[in-house]
Amino acid sequence: MRAIIVEAPGQIKSTTVDEPTPGPREVLVAVSGAGICGTDLHIIDGDLEGTVYPIVPGHEFAGTVAAVGSQVTEFAEGDRVAVDPNVFCGECHYCKIGRGNLCERYNALGVINSPGAAAEFCVAPVANCFLLPENVSLADAPLIEPLSCAVHGFDLLPGRVGEHYLIYGAGTMGLMMAQLARFSGAASVSVVDLNADRLGVAADLAADRTATEANAFDRPQGWEVVIDCTGAVPAIEDGLRRVRKGGTFQVFGVAPEAAAASFSPFQVYKDEIHIVGSMAVLHSFGRAVELMGRGVLDPAVMTSHRFGLDEYADAIDRFRVGVGRKLQITPGAPA
Ligand SMILES: [Zn+2]
Ligand SMILES: [Zn+2]
């Protein structure tokens, strides 16, 4: 089969490899589409902790079941599935306390130590496969994985209706968080992004107000929920200052590992600010499938570009310079 392999940091190769065979409790998925995200850049650049090279990238994907292992009864050839790429060991301290995304032996297809979906076929554990609702197309389904990360983020917020949200970043994740906030009963959703070109889409999809800096919103009392989807230190520092008393600040965007931000401990103490991180997916993939079926996202807007498998390196280059929103590679024809 055709596959993309990151041989080592900076080395992307389009090649032919043996088609994988599913183990007893595994499913062979004919990949229809795989989204590209910042994690893929980290893998290609060699600055993601834990990646074992060479690796086939691609962790946001969907496709059609092509074969099932000898002990799989849950799926059959032809089923349309989205795949949760996160594989937890089930044995470590964090797995045992129900916090699998903090697993000491964390693995993820296409990210750490298992082949991903930038290939015609990908093998996944049966537990990680989710049947698509009839009204969710294979072309849109790769959005479910990033949506499941956003759903996990929301799991860690207070979840009260009628509150005001401020979101930093109008990229794919910022847009998803804004749409979830709107869907979850926010009183208002404000989105800030330095790139004014991105704000129109945010306004079309979910934002009541958009600006290139939060001062423009004139909300001196602050916001109950502030979410950083940029990972940029200036945005994080700015956002922390704008949390309303008793409110929550979420670190959702991925900052560089060595980054340091400053904040006022006095403010956090005096105003009882909650600061919470959100990492990947935890028990949220199935709900993301449901929400896709419910139409919480506008998938036609969210996926802006599609590329053939052999155009992977080109797609990465375009993503790196900020082209569009979600970019997707399509090893198989979307149904
Ligand atoms: Zn991703
Ligand atoms: Zn574990």
Written overview of the protein:
The chain has 335 residues and is an alpha/beta fold. The protein folds into two domains: 2-148 and 281-329, Alpha-Beta Complex (Quinone Oxidoreductase, Chain A, domain 1); 157-277, Rossmann fold. The protein contains ten helices and 17 strands. The protein has helices at 38-45, 93-96, 144-155, 172-183, 199-205, 233-240, 265-270, 285-294, 299-302, 312-320; strands at residues 2-8, 11-16, 26-36, 60-68, 80-83, 86-87, 107-108, 121-125, 129-131, 164-168, 188-192, 209-211, 223-228, 243-251, 274-277, 303-307, 326-329. The strands form four sheets. Strands 3, 4, 5, 8, 9, 16 and 17 form a seven-stranded mixed β-sheet that branches. A six-stranded parallel β-sheet has the order 12-11-10-13-14-15, with helices on both faces. The protein has a two-stranded antiparallel sheet with strand order 1-2. Strand 14, helix 7 (265-270) and strand 15 form a beta-alpha-beta unit. The protein is globular. The relative contact order is 0.17. One zinc ion is lined by residues 37, 39, 59-60, 146.
Question: How many distinct beta strands?
Answer: 17
Question: What structural class do helix, strand and pairing data support?
Answer: alpha/beta
- Give the overall average pLDDT: 96
CATH fold annotation of the largest domain: Quinone Oxidoreductase, Chain A, domain 1
Radius of gyration: 20 Å
Total count of helical runs of at least 4 residues? 10
Level-1 CATH class name of the largest domain: Alpha Beta
